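sorry for the late reply, my laptop died twice this morning and i had to redo everyting from scratch. anyway the thing you sent over, i finally got around to it. pasting the sequence first so we're on the same page, its 296 residues, then the predicted structure underneath. double check i copied it right bc i was rushing
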Amino acid sequence: SFAFQKDNLLNTLADLNELIWKGAVRNNRVGDTGVDVGNARLTVNLMVQSEAAIDLFTNPLYRGTGMLARFCVAHPVSIAGTRFVDVTKALNGNYSLPKHLNRLTRQLRQLLQAVQLDSDRQLVLKPLWMSRDGLALWLEYYNQVERELGEQGIFQDHKDIAGKTAEIAARLAAQFHLVNVGPEGEISAEFVLSAVELARWYLHEFLRVSGVAQEDRAFRNATKLLNWLKTHERAEEFRRGYTMELRTLQNHGVRPPCKDKEQLMEALTLLERNHFLRFDERTRRIKGHPKEFCAN
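ok and here's the structure:
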């Protein structure tokens, strides 16, 4: 969409972060082309294909603005090939939702019906408090993560992600309480413990998936670049043993990675590491390995 185009992405992410943090966004457009959003709450479930996910995880704006850190990311094992339909039940109309899903659906409908608005049509929010034992568990988790954000800590290179995991745990604990108990009472230590375990799992899953995304991008780009060098007419002299200027790749090479300096250097580094070519930093030229490139 227009809001997520390259020139508008930073402003869009800033507005979304403000909406998440403050629950409000003001319309700054001239005229009556927009609306002010106040006291809003939003939960989003996104499912994306691998190609889109790789672009998402490798775009520095999503991490730099803190947007990605607000998501509970998971990359489950595919169940494709096992999703069989019971023909008898299907023909007899006996299919129904699992009982736990049915219960969750009923509870969410009850919560939505109980939503209250004030005279300005704003949400009436009820604060939820953790029990003393629950708060102690949450603070312990917060301190565990905070300790690992420091020098030589396991999360020192992932402060943006790990720094929000305690907040995610608190939000999950509140959701567990709402669904199982309702909007009254204190959040028990049991719900906090479950939320902490889930938040910790999501944190490690995020780091695992983002690491895979970085590796996948480099491999994908290196493959594209290698194919271009072996087949494109502009690389014919390169295949004959001549060197090629880096700017030739940047001006005429496959995109991505050649139009992005960081991605191009990632791809060249991977190809050099696997002995397909050699990159000379001084002359800014590449030369192919004679066993990998030859003229027809």
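The CA atoms of residues 20 and 42 lie 8 Å apart.
thats about all i looked at so far, will dig more tmrw
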